[in-house]
Amino acid sequence: MQRREFLAAAAAAIPAAAATPIPIIDTHIHLFDPRRPQGIPWPPKDNAIMYKPALPDRYRALTKALGITGAIEVECSPWLEDNQWVLDVAAKDTIVVGMIGNLEPGKPDFDKQLDRFAKNSLFRGIRYGYLWDRNIRAELKNPAFIAGLKRLAAGGYTLDSANPTVALLEDLIEVGDKVPNLKIVIDHLPKIAIPADAKGRAAYDAAIRTLAARPNVYVKVSAVLTKIGDRVPYELAPYKPKLDALYAAFGPDRLLYGSDWPNSDPLGNYAQVLQVVRDYFEAKGPAVAEKYFWKNSIAAYGWVHREKGQPGK
Predict the structure, then answer these.
(1) Rounded CA gap, 201 and 123, in Å?
(2) What one-character-per-residue DSSP string does 135-187 give?
(3) Interatomic CA distance for residues 74 and 11, integer angstroms
(4) Which positions ≥6 away from 141 have C-beta within 8 Å?
(5) d(C-alpha 63, C-alpha 26), whole Å
(6) Which residues of 146-173 are buried (b: 16+ CB within 10 A; e: fewer)?
(7) CB contact at 8 A, 71 and 96
(8) Cβ(18)–Cβ(65) under 8 Å?
(9) Strand, helix or coil at 3?
């Protein structure tokens, strides 16, 4: 059986009864459509699993039996006008409750661009870090970049980070030092490669302690699945130590659910991605699970309620 056929069969085998009674807001999905005349910058054409339309109707079909009631799109394109493309797509489907865009705070036209996209209430912030050949550490020396982050903070918008390394965590500490009221979401922290050497591990531990002490810093428990040896485990046990460490550091009020769909597809289907974290957080009781699956996302993003069944209203 081919991998894609296996994943499809596994997804079909998940019964509707497996859906959690707790409504879920997925804070990390990507939308794109390779059929557009201009194409897409990502994923590449040679990625047979991912190079196909990733649109809200497909996402609904995959998640309808699993308790997903809304999703926040995180921009996966460096093209400025793709911010508008996502907002236009989202306008047609109420499962999308927010969007994290792609803007560069240090650029001369940042204020104009922010004003443009912020007219749409679904626009909830931007993503920046080490992505699309950008270097947040270099930008932290740029007064215009810091001024842009201060504009984000003043508007109540959120900064999502990319991609997790110890260096990025240290950069985010500096961001918080310079713009204390900015909401920061650390994407995919379970994916980070924790240094094995004593000096690197000490730097990681120090960064986590500092960030955990800041109440406006949130963590996406996303990109959890990983290949171990020659297989991807779908049971909780291999991932539990890292999840325990993040829970001990950040507590129940600042962890967020994100699937990373469809970037997660090469490692497992949506039900498998969700099941690992459901097993972990539901074992902590419904109050903790509710915070992780939807309540904390309201505090982090202030997303827009668009349809019946979306929680918190």
Answers:
(1) 36
(2) -HHHHTT-HHHHHHHHHHHHTT-EEEEES--HHHHHHHHHHHHH-TT-EEEET
(3) 24
(4) none
(5) 10
(6) bebbebbbeeebbbbbbebbbebbbbbb
(7) yes
(8) yes
(9) helix
Residue 166 in tokens: 């110890």
What CATH number is given to the structural domain containing 185? 3.20.20.140
Nearest-10 Cα torsion for 145, 108, 103, 177: 10
Residue 96 structural domain: 3-11+21-301
Tell me the backbone φ, ψ of residue 26, rounded to 5 degrees: -85, 115
Angle in degrees, 0-180, between the axes of helices 110-118 and 143-154, rounded to the nearest 10: 20
pLDDT tens string 99-157: 999 999 999 999 999 999 999 999 999 999 999 999 999 999 999 999 999 999 999 99
Residue 310 lies in a domain: no
pLDDT of residue 20: 52
In a domain? residue 308: no
pLDDT band, residue 237 (cuts 50/70/90):
very high
Say if residue 163 is preceded by a cis peptide, omega within 30 of 0.
Answer: yes
**Is 296 domain-assigned?**
yes
- Asked if 148 contacts 118 with a C-beta cutoff of 8 angstroms, the reply is no
- CA-closest candidate to residue 277, choices 253, 297, 256: 256
Domain count, the chain: 1
Average pLDDT over residues 217-224: 98
What are 7-33's pLDDT values in tens digits?
A: 444 444 444 334 458 999 999 999 999
Which residues lie closer than 8 Å to 13 by C-beta, 6 or more apart?
none
Token pair belonging to 195: 């240094």
